[in-house]
Amino acid sequence: xxxAASCFSRASVVPIMILFILxxxxxxxxxxxxxxxxxxxxxxxxxxxxxxxxxxxxxxxCASSDSSTIRVPNGMYLLPTAMGFxxxxxxxxxxxxxxxxxxxxxxxxQILGQADNWLSFETVTGVSIxxxxxxAKGSSLWACKLAGSTDCPSGATSLSFTNSKNIRIxxxxxLNSQMYHIVINGCQDVHIQGVKIIAAGNSPNTDGIHxxxxxNVAIFDTSIKTGDDCVxxxxxxxxLWIEHISCGPSHGISIGSLGKDLEEEGVxxxxxxxxxxxxxxxxxxxxxxxxxxxxFVQSVQFLDVVMHNVQNPIIIDQNYCPHNVNCPGQVSxxxxxxxxxxxxxxxxxxxxxxxxxxxxANPCRGIKLENVSLTCKxxxxxxxxxxxxxxxxxxxxxxxxx
Length: 402
Ligand SMILES: *[C@@H]1O[C@H](CO)[C@@H](O)[C@H](O)[C@H]1NC(C)=O
Ligand SMILES: *[C@@H]1O[C@H](CO)[C@@H](O)[C@H](O)[C@H]1NC(C)=O
Prior knowledge:
By secondary structure, the chain is mainly beta. The chain has 5 helices and 28 strands.
């Protein structure tokens, strides 16, 4: 500290420091590069292909060593083909898509149908998607699949993040994906909030949010109505937090299918809190193949959940083996342990409200039912247990078979 500085009293140092901080944040804000997609040639008319404008804006944002915001104003932007946003050569510390408009795919499903993803982000860090809507126009592909035709393409996931870090998706709406709506794969530190997902209740393979091989993913304040899982949780998911979510119709929040492969990473530390399920196939599900596997599910908490007329409100199914093929021995190697169901209330659409069907080779351990109250309108609600070990506390209805 020099002579002059040492003469400052404490009282005068503090305001100077505040001024300094204000000055710094003003500079930081003023150097955020704002890139308007219209100035890259995008047309908000829903019919002009705006792919090049989006790719050019991404390149410009990447090339800058400042943070960037890519502005997508109101309107419809046609993005008919698969687009990859890659981060390997990005200099930017953070890129935000600030979207007021809607990104639309082609209504001809053949154009995107063979692609894995419509919009995919790979090896990016610090990317945020704020607002906006994605309309993948998947309904004609669903119709092809529902008609039982064998030559339908599998379809593209609408939005995926792969091998990425520090991701935020806030206030996005995703409509009518061909396949999954949002996939988080191989990522770390992902915050999803205020997302709305909508597809028909009978649309095939349209999972809302799929997470796998990822750590520290949080999903808050989200509403999902779709034809497959609301949230599906794949191998290698750790420290997943889901809070204040509405599902349904859907196939529920599903850990699995797991254990298809012998060598597979486990699922660990998953919390679902404050969830509501409306109709549909499942509420809270853990599902594994009846196949040899080193996979596992450990430390899962389901807290404060309401069920409205759900076919399987609570279900562990370790005997998944469609058409009874490729399941040598017909038992699952996946070890399920420490799963808590606390404060689960509401109605089941079938008599078996609690179904714990675990592996004969690896019984479920540490299953805990606490304050569970599920009724069925037409019949007496029941529990089913097979190879499940655990305990109950508080009021549990239907009477537990643990
Ligand atoms: C479990 O995950 C949450 C985030 O979802 C994290 O805050 C917590 O520390 C994790 N617990 C353990 C024991 O790792
Ligand atoms: C279980 O329910 C009872 C009665 O509604 C309540 O007093 C208690 O706090 C609940 N326990 C938990 C762990 O939520």
